């Protein structure tokens, strides 16, 4: 990082406030640079993208509303490194965001003027009630790792869209796109590969013809969870892997340490309560952190013709045994939610059981794929055969787990001790799926490409 001081001062210019930024040019070192003035209180910002040339002035003036000039303004300078390769479009270049320097603008006089009044004065409106909505932004997400923005402007003063994408729990890298406005409506496919399970914010700012004043702004917050199309694609992978073998299923069972069940009997009157789903399995699963439930296993002992459960367990040495028909009577609706593996060769399919009309059922009907328990072709995981007997997939190294979304009184059911393997208990927070498995991942992991697109223009 260059050795110099980025500095800024605040002053007035008629009805506007002005921030004068110096020291940026030495840091830019001949590159394109993004200068941003941030009002920490209102979270508003004003931006300039500048091609650093010998003729470019060393002090840049950015106008801000008087309502913000007396606030604590943070100034950031972000050099943008031009990437090698072909132009994306005529007049556009690709950049990556390098390190950032920042400073705080020095205090000056005090004044008060609302940003809305500032916009009204620019648009020549006399009555605040006639000020139109200046923009709208909608998002279309067909897959967890992609997004398109439908941006509409309602004023011809907007000449450019400045679009910034940030992963909210990881402030860097940041994605910056400057897009010219060619019509009143634009469908912009965000060229970012979103990571499943991560949260993002997208800021869309409408700039005037100079690119220096933000006329309107909207922010979208979202989490990259699997869409219904993603769930269906994962379901198809699970169907292909499950095969056609099945065995009789008589009981659903849940293994935990003995003290887990003792605490329920002693402190909760025997009621085992559903609790929030952790982050095990696919990180983009819609039920992670959103749906309460209890995990049960349905898979049976290899080679069993009478429906005996698996001999041992990785989750604890005490096993609760519940007749399958009783759980199905309490929660008869079935949904597909996940197909995953961890480090070993075993693959898991996760089915959610809900009570019809419950909150959990309404959530699953909107986010998951409904299964017909009486169709072995559409649901080879857990189904009734032609004779009316409940069957479970019995492929080797394939486990069917159930996420039961109701509370249950364990005093009514049998328990037994079982051998354990591995750690013998579940992992706090859950174990995520193996991202390198081609059988159960929708796509191979992709690295972020950090860049910004900008027009070639100067101030």
Short description:
A hairpin with a 6-residue loop joins strand 14 (199-207) and strand 15 (214-223).
Descriptive overview:
- By secondary structure, the protein is mainly beta.
- It contains 7 helices and 30 strands.
- It has helices at residues 24-28, 66-69, 115-123, 228-242, 258-267, 324-330, 359-367; strands at residues 7-13, 16-22, 32-39, 44-51, 60-64, 73-82, 92-97, 101-104, 135-140, 148-153, 160-167, 170-180, 185-189, 199-207, 214-223, 246-248, 251-256, 271-272, 275-276, 292-297, 318-323, 333-341, 347-354, 369-371, 382-384, 390-393, 398-404, 408-409, 414-417, 452-455.
- The strands form 7 sheets. Strands 3, 4, 6, 7, 8, 11, 12, 14, 15 and 30 form a 10-stranded mixed sheet that branches.
- β22 (333-341) and β23 (347-354) form a beta hairpin.
- The chain is elongated.
- The protein starts with 6 loop residues before the first strand and ends with a strand.
* Backbone CA Rg: 29 Å
Q: How many alpha or pi helices? A: 7
Considering DSSP H and I runs of 4 or more, what fraction of the residues is helical?
10-25%
Structural class: mainly beta
Strand content: 35-45%
Can you summarize the main beta sheet?
10 strands, mixed
Average pLDDT: 81
What is the end-to-end distance?
26 Å
Attribute tags:
459 residues; mainly beta; 10-stranded mixed beta sheet; 6-stranded mixed beta sheet; 7 helices; 13% helix; 39% strand; disordered C terminus
Could you give the topology of this structure?
Blueprint: E1 7-13, E2 16-22, H1 24-28, E3 32-39, E4 44-51, E5 60-64, H2 66-69, E6 73-82, E7 92-97, E8 101-104, H3 115-123, E9 135-140, E10 148-153, E11 160-167, E12 170-180, E13 185-189, E14 199-207, E15 214-223, H4 228-242, E16 246-248, E17 251-256, H5 258-267, E18 271-272, E19 275-276, E20 292-297, E21 318-323, H6 324-330, E22 333-341, E23 347-354, H7 359-367, E24 369-371, E25 382-384, E26 390-393, E27 398-404, E28 408-409, E29 414-417, E30 452-455
């Amino acid at each position: 990082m260059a050795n110099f001081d980025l500095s800024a001062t605040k002053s007035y210019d008629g009805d506007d406030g002005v921030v004068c930024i110096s020291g940026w040019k030495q840091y830019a070192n001949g590159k394109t640079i993004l200068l941003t003035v941030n009002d920490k209180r209102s979270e508003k910002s004003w931006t300039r993208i500048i091609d650093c040339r010998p003729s470019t002035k060393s002090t840049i003036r950015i106008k801000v509303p008087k309502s913000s000039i007396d606030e604590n303004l943070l100034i950031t300078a972000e050099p943008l490194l031009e990437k090698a390769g072909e132009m994306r479009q005529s007049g556009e270049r690709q950049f990556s965001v390098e390190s950032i320097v920042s400073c705080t603008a020095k205090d000056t006089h005090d004044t008060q003027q609302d940003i809305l009044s500032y916009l009204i004065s620019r648009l020549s409106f006399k009555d605040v009630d006639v000020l139109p909505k200046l923009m709208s932004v909608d998002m279309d997400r067909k897959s967890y790792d992609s997004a398109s923005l439908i941006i509409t402007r309602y004023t011809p003063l907007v000449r450019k869209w400045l679009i910034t994408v940030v992963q909210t729990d990881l402030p860097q890298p940041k994605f910056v796109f400057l897009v010219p406005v060619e019509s009143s409506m634009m469908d912009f496919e965000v060229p970012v590969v979103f990571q499943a399970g991560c949260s993002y914010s997208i800021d869309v700012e409408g700039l005037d013809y100079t690119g220096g004043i933000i006329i309107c702004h909207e922010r979208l917050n979202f989490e990259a969870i699997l869409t219904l199309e993603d769930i269906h694609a994962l379901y198809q992978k699970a169907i292909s892997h499950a095969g056609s073998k099945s065995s009789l299923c008589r009981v659903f069972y849940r293994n935990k340490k003995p003290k887990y069940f003792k605490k329920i009997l002693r402190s909760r009157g025997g009621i085992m309560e559903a609790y929030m789903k952790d982050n095990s399995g696919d990180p983009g699963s819609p039920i992670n952190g959103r749906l309460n439930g209890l995990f049960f296993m349905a898979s049976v002992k290899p080679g069993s013709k009478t429906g005996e459960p698996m001999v041992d367990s990785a989750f604890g040495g005490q096993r609760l045994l519940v007749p399958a028909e009783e759980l199905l009577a309490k929660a008869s609706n079935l949904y597909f939610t996940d197909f995953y593996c961890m480090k070993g060769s075993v693959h898991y399919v996760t089915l959610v059981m809900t009570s019809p009309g419950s909150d959990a059922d309404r959530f699953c009907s909107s986010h998951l794929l409904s299964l017909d328990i009486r169709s072995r072709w559409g649901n080879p995981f857990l189904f009734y055969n032609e004779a009316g007997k409940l069957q479970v997939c019995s492929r080797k190294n394939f486990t069917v787990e159930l996420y039961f979304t109701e509370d249950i009184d364990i005093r009514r059911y049998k328990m037994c001790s079982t051998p354990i393997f591995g750690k013998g208990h579940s992992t706090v927070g859950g174990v995520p799926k193996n991202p390198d498995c081609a059988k159960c991942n929708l796509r191979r992991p992709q690295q972020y490409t950090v860049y910004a697109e900008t027009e070639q223009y100067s101030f």
